[in-house]
Amino acid sequence: MELIGRSEHKPFECVGSIDEVNLAVSLAIQRILAENGELPLLFEKYLEQGLYDSESLAERNEKYCRGFSEKNLLPVEFKNILIKEMERLL
Predict the structure, then answer these.
(1) What pLDDT is recorded for position 51?
(2) How many other C-beta atoms are found inside a 10 Å radius of the C-beta of residue 14?
(3) How confident is the model at residue 40 (pLDDT cuts 50, 70, 90)?
(4) Residue 63 belongs to what domain range?
(5) How far apart are CA 71 and CA 50, in angstroms?
(6) 30 φ/ψ sector (left φ>0, alpha ψ -120 to 50, else beta)
(7) Average pLDDT of the residues in 3-7
(8) Does residue 58 have a pLDDT over 70?
(9) Other CB atoms within 10 Å distance of the CB of residue 2
């Protein structure tokens, strides 16, 4: 609950922002549902609480997975690899 922003404290800043974690959970749920798989209990709870928003999923995915922020501590060598790969995908 802390990682998805449902409490006052969010641990582990290194795992991503609350929005990024929610996107990752939503994308995982979308994939499992598309494959007619069984959702893990935590994902079921996520759905039950109305946190899964399939309507805005594509827009959020575009925002967080197709962009690059210069506000990071990424070493230059890895930054260059990331930028090159993003350019290849676009």
Answers:
(1) 86
(2) 5
(3) very high
(4) 13-89
(5) 31
(6) alpha
(7) 70
(8) yes
(9) 13
Using the Cα atoms of residue 76, residue 78, residue 80 and residue 83 in order, give the sign of their dihedral: negative
Domain-embedded: residue 26: yes
Domain annotation covers residue 50: yes
Give the integer Cα–Cα distance in Å for 65 and 46.
21
Looking at residue 30, the DSSP 8-state letter turns out to be H
In a domain, residue 31? The reply is yes
Give the pTM.
Answer: 0.67
Tell me if 18 is assigned to some domain: yes
Helical packing angle, 41-48 and 18-34, nearest 10°: 110
> Domain count of the chain?
1
Long-range CB pairs of 21-27 (<8 Å, 24+ gap) are 22/51, 23/57, 23/60, 23/61, 23/64, 23/65, 25/51, 25/52, 26/51, 26/52, 26/53, 26/54, 26/57, 26/60, 27/57, 27/61
Q: What is d(CA 57, CA 82) in angstroms, rounded to the nearest whole number?
A: 23
